[in-house]
Amino acid sequence: MRLVLCGTPEFAAPTLRALVGRGHEMALVVTQPDRPAGRKMEMQAPAVKRAAMELGLRVVQPEKIKNNAELRAELEAIRPDAIVVVAYGRIIPEWMLELPGLGNVNLHGSLLPKYRGAAPIQWAVANGERETGVTTMRLDAGLDTGDVLLERRVEIGPETMAAELYPVLAAMGAELMVETMEGLERGAIVARKQDEAEATLAPILTREDGRMELERRTAREAYNRWRGFAPWPGAWAEFRGKRFLVHRMHVAGDVAERLGAEGLRPGELAVVDGELAVGAAVGALALDEVQMEGKARMAGAAFARDFQLKRGESLA
User: Fold this and answer.
1) Has residue 60 got a pLDDT over 60?
2) Which residue in 117, 152, 201, 264 is deepest, having the highest Cβ count within 10 Å?
């Protein structure tokens, strides 16, 4: 098949390699412009661009695509059978949706219709889901509302981090896209409508999503959100008027028993059997590695010692 791929981050690169490896003609790769990144804010090419250049493919990096006459003319000249879209980061305009005969086929990192939006992997973990997966779908004008083509599922373990799922789902998604393209070519896939009653959203993450808010979350809920949101926005609160980051934690189910009947109030800090613990709305967390704003990371117990933690002090 003659294809065009639109994608940007590392999540999309395995799909590009897999399609080329199966012998499909990748006539063009569309990705976002190089951006400054890292501490030195040096310009870096997107992962998809690097993969495309290794494969000897033509790459374009338009800043905008909706009214881009040059891009439109090039795609119309290519006349692709399908446009493959994987984490491109731009809304696909109507003219692109209508261009290829087999449509724009998207790889999405959830089991649609659950977790439509920009951060499906993170929100699935943050909400304590036990299963997720990847879905191929035909894009339409809505937000991940198009007809589902194929899907594959994977278990989320109780300690699994969202960052650990990314390469798993990227590899699984690459295989699924190859299967989808070959099924479409044969006319062997029956698309199905999404059940709108089951739809949930996975909006782009903000810094506020990392706020622990232990007065209204159980220890397990706070732990799940950290699993979903590490490394950014992570898990954070305020202590003594400064930002307090938690880099590693675990649910400490028996803190109340070790402290006595009173346990810990939500947000209250205490050293319990050598661990820095904090109370939640239900249960408690052990904070294994923490960091005060402007300071180095340190073990929770070392933080309590170095900052002379007093009984009754709390995270806000």
Assistant:
1) yes
2) 264
How crowded is residue 89: how many other Cβ atoms within 10 Å of its Cβ? 13
11: nearest Cα among 161, 180, 165, 147: 165
Q: What is the structure's pLDDT at 39?
A: 81
User: Phi and psi of 84, rounded to 5°?
Assistant: -95, 130
Average pLDDT rounded to a whole number, residues 266-281: 93
Alpha-carbon distances, residue 65 vs 4, 23, 69 (angstroms): 14, 28, 8
139-181 residue pLDDT tens? 999 999 999 999 999 999 999 999 999 999 999 999 999 999 9
Cα angle 207-210-214, degrees, rounded to a multiple of 5: 140
| Residue partners of 7: CB distance under 8 A and separation at least 6 | 13, 15, 16, 29, 30, 31, 48, 84, 85, 86, 87, 88
The pairing of strands 42-44 and 35-37 is antiparallel
Token pair, residue 131, equals: 């299963």
Rounded Cα distance between 263 and 159, Å, is: 24
Q: Would you say residue 246 has pLDDT above 80?
A: yes
Kindly report the pTM of this predicted structure.
0.94
Q: What is the DSSP letter of 45?
A: -
201 φ/ψ sector (left φ>0, alpha ψ -120 to 50, else beta): beta
Residue 81's alpha-carbon distances to 70, 99, 202, 232, 299, in angstroms, are 20, 9, 30, 38, 55
